[in-house]
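To illustrate the input format used throughout this study, we show a single complete record. The first block contains the structure-token representation of the backbone; no residue identities are included at this stage. The design step must infer an amino acid for every position from geometry alone.
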């Protein structure tokens, strides 16, 4: 397995993720913790890949500074909104230019939703696959579709999940060894 797995080990993330994965916590508290864990993971992942342009506007008596995202890059989050609805709103507030694509585990909806990616030409695309717990092998079909049909480079695909199972990591490592995965725990 040659995957690029980033185990985020910040103390707050460790505390939140341990209580999220353990049983016996009510659903409302779980959703609340999931939201913050996902935001921390998203922050850690974007910290390396987000590039900002600084624009200086000279005024008469001062210089005004603006920060903007690079215009030659597009960011997409691919997720099942039924599982990740509570964190997507927060991410959309932080990055209004990010595009959210809802997929479920059916292959038909996958190709329909991913057509948005195909029609944005001349831009570098960064794909973030957001999952609670990575355990389904359908993620391999999704990555295969992104690479073969939509011509996305594997280096531009990132998986963000709270936890992931070792079996799915083995499968991903055999097929896509350069894939980037950000997680708090391997089960």
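Output of the design step:
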């Amino acid at each position: 397995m040659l995957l690029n797995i980033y185990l985020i080990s910040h103390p707050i993330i460790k505390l939140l993720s341990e209580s999220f994965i353990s049983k016996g916590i009510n659903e409302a508290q779980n959703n609340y913790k999931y939201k913050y864990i996902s935001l921390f993971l998203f922050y850690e992942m974007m910290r390396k890949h987000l590039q900002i342009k600084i624009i200086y506007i000279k005024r008469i008596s001062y210089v005004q500074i603006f920060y903007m995202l690079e215009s030659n890059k597009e960011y997409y989050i691919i997720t099942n909104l039924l599982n990740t609805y509570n964190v997507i709103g927060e991410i959309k507030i932080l990055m209004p230019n990010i595009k959210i694509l809802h997929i479920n585990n059916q292959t038909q909806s996958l190709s329909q939703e991913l057509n948005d990616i195909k029609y944005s030409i001349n831009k570098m695309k960064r794909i973030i696959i957001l999952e609670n717990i990575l355990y389904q092998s359908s993620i391999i079909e999704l990555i295969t579709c992104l690479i073969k049909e939509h011509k996305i480079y594997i280096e531009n695909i990132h998986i963000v999940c709270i936890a992931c199972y070792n079996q799915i990591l083995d499968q991903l490592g055999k097929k896509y060894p350069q894939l980037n995965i950000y997680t708090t725990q391997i089960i």
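Structural context for interpreting the output: Residues 27-49 form the longest helix (23 residues). The first strand starts at residue 4 and ends at 7.
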